[in-house]
Amino acid sequence: MSTRRSARLRDQPTQAVAAPDLPAEEPRKTTKRKAPATKTDDETVAKSRKKIEAAPKPDPKPAVKTQKARVGAGAKKTTTVAAQATAGATSLALSSLPQEILDMIFESIDDTKSLGRLSKTCKTYYALVTPQLYKRLDVWVSFHAHIAKLIRTIDPLLSIEQKKQLKKVGTYKGQQESFPSKVDQRKKPEIANFVKQALLGIGDPGKNHREIVHRYVDEAMKNMHNLEIVETIRLTEAIAKSLAEQRNLKALALRVNNVGERYTEAMAKIKNLQHLVLELSGYYDYTFRSEINIPGSLIRNSRSTLRSLIVDSDSFTSLRFNDLGQPGQATESGGEKLLPVLESFSMSGSSSMEPCDKETLANSIDFVALKELKFGSLSGDTKLIFEYLADSFLVAHQDEKTEIKLRNLSMNMELKTWGVPQEARQATLDAKIRFISSFDTLSSLTLDAYGEYRRDLPNPGLETSLLQGILKHEHLTRLKISTQGYRSDHDMPRLEPDTVSTLINGLSNLKELEFFPSIQHLDEIGKILSRGRNLTSITIITMRAWTTTEECHEQSKEFVTNVAHGVLERNLDSDVKAFKWEEHSTIQHVRIDYIVWELGSKLGKAKKGMKKANKFTVASKPKREVMYREITDHMRKPMDYGLDPTWMNRVAKDLI
């Protein structure tokens, strides 16, 4: 019996019903309710209706364009939101790095303007960048125009109460005009704790402005408690007291001439310094009646930690180095030195070296263990000191168990011995040369003011004993025979081509070379220098041998041409198809007096101060070429009225 049709339909599997393709509904436009027209508005409404009816009907195409614009706006909005989300994720990822890594990243950025702009992007970057922005306090005041910048630099480090007190001393440009009332007036800014380095160039702006300058620096020093490096050219009671209270102070440079007894008690509390500079102009022992003088106490309190010491004083004896330790604690022949961990020592400026100074130095410093040694301009009986050094290094050189660590040596070869016979002067020079010849570990050697002589005398050149002493240091990478100044009626010993050839052949590791060349043989000297295997920088000093700027520029270009062609014309018979300068020479810079040239196969894009690049070629082989250009203006340093940050930069790098 057949089943009913309704039963058969019930037993079939159910199928999904496809929805018909209906057009997408446009969003309804919501219109605002109009207020009912009043009798007074009837005429206005009627006129508006007539204008609407008279207006042409819009084309339907713009409606589509409007719809596309809406879609584009939505996409743009979505892209913006996505970009913000990505930036937020990147910011969070950067913030998740350890603080040490973040500090390394921001410390590698030298552009403070870029750091300042970065700190304004968000609170996270502000918190990360601010410690680096305020890490160093650098101020310089020498006259009235500098005071405004001083105030703007120091103002963020002061409390509101300090700012108000300073305004009472004097009103100056850069001071804050208004202050909030609902804050703690005595609260010290957190920024002051970020300052770790202070470069205080406190000059004398004049009698009327001296007080405000000193007060600003004194108030700032009261708030900075995490200083590690301080360099100052003026010492006040507030600065001395603040230095004594520092717990993290590791390096101090006193370049002052106003040291007095009133600072002795505070400065005697400073200890455990690693780097110390004492440039004490006009300092002499009889100005102190105290048993403990400032230089002696600073060195004595840091005996076990001091690693570098620079002494520039009118009187070396007045520094009283012999008071550093107990009598008999160290001897000239052996025993523990008074400064056992010293690695770098520099001495200059002394106007009266005495025989006892040699014993003091011998008892205080282990010169063989030094890595860097510098003797500036000295006068008096210096022969004994260099004879002692020559004997000490010769003994150490012959002893296989003793390691000579000295790598950098700088010596002023000028003999300031007025009234001393020529034989005594020559004996002092011979002692210096014997010291250079007593060992062979140097990688850098600088000889200043060597052998100045009158122009009416023949050129003495480089003494044979000195040349042989230099050649003993086979690992030299830097050799400078220069001067810091000269007299118009005097000249410096000039190197002949054979001497230059001996240096180039004997010092294969030489990278930087500076000397006085023989003017008559510049072409030949240029060809010889082109043979330097590792030379990267060449500097020759002519001492204004040419009268006009045009002559100087012409001669310098001719010298560079000789250096370049000395390389290009080498092995012309070889079958080298592609010539690359860097594969045949390492010379990159050539300086003649103040004019600087750059050489290379590709010099890159010209920067500010660089002239248009040209090229040297060989006529017989045009493919042999090298680019060159003058970069004098680019290399010239801008005039800076502040303190030279070289020492602070070096110490800061060492303390990392």
From TrEMBL:
Pfam families per UniProt: F-box-like
Comp. bias intervals (Basic and acidic residues): 39-62
Highest rank taxon of the organism: Eukaryota
Region (Disordered) location: 1-75
Protein name: F-box domain-containing protein
Membrane-spanning residues: none
Organism: Fusarium heterosporum
InterPro entries in UniProt: F-box-like_dom_sf (IPR036047), F-box_dom (IPR001810), LRR_dom_sf (IPR032675)
PROSITE patterns cross-referenced by the UniProt entry: FBOX
Range of residues in the leader sequence: none
Ranges where the F-box domain occurs: 91-137
